[in-house]
Amino acid sequence: MYRVMNSKKQIIRITRNAVMLALLCVIGMFSLPLGDNIKVSLQLLMVFIIGLTSASVIDAVIVTGLYLVIGLLIPVYAGFTAGVTPTFGFVISFVVLVIPLYFLNKLPIKNQFVRMAIACTVSLLVCYAIGATFLALYLKLNIQKALLIAVVPYIPFDIAKIIIAVLVVSLLPKRSSSL
Questions:
Q1: Is the sign of the CA dihedral 107, 111, 114, 117 positive or negative?
Q2: Is residue 178 included in any domain, yes or no?
Q3: Which of 5, 28, 72, 110 gets the most CB atoms within 10 Å of its CB?
């Protein structure tokens, strides 16, 4: 009986991860051009949702890691791109940022909105640090210039993504903690 229950949980977990990866690949491709070289995508929103809802930190790392690998070969990154581009550091950061995101969301803060917002905000800073550093190295820029190009214009949009992620996750039905 235990084996059957355990197998069912594993199937649910694998299916959930596959759906999250598929959503990230599909949603991640689309971007909205907002002006001179500013494109806003929903990759980060989906990564926040993945990190906040994963059954384990390993699941979150696997989903975002597979997204990174798939995007090296298939154009699933923002703007239907693939491979290593100047903004590839942000995709790398997705694999890393889900770690603090997952664990910070487990803090004993009773207000779930505050807890999730803190987790997303800290993770966003990780994203900015890795993405801007990669951009600076790739384009041979100083870090201040990289931050001005790849972070500052996106701050309002990323704050909106945090708010949306927190709202979406809070509206999802509560899943069993035994998954």
A1: positive
A2: no
A3: 28
What confidence tens digit (pLDDT) does each residue in 32-88 have?
887 766 789 999 999 999 999 999 999 999 999 999 999 999 999 998 999 999 999
In degrees rounded to 5, what are phi and psi of residue 78?
A: -50, 135
Helical spans, DSSP H, in the chain: 2-29, 43-53, 57-73, 88-104, 112-139, 143-150, 155-171
Domain annotation covers residue 75 = yes
Please report, to the nearest 10 degrees, the dihedral formed by the alpha carbons of residues 16, 21, 25, 31 taken in order.
Answer: 80
Global confidence as pTM: 0.92
What does the alpha-carbon distance between residue 119 and residue 52 come to, in Å, rounded to a whole number? 8
Structural domain that includes position 82: 2-171
For residue 68, the domain's CATH number is 1.10.1760.20
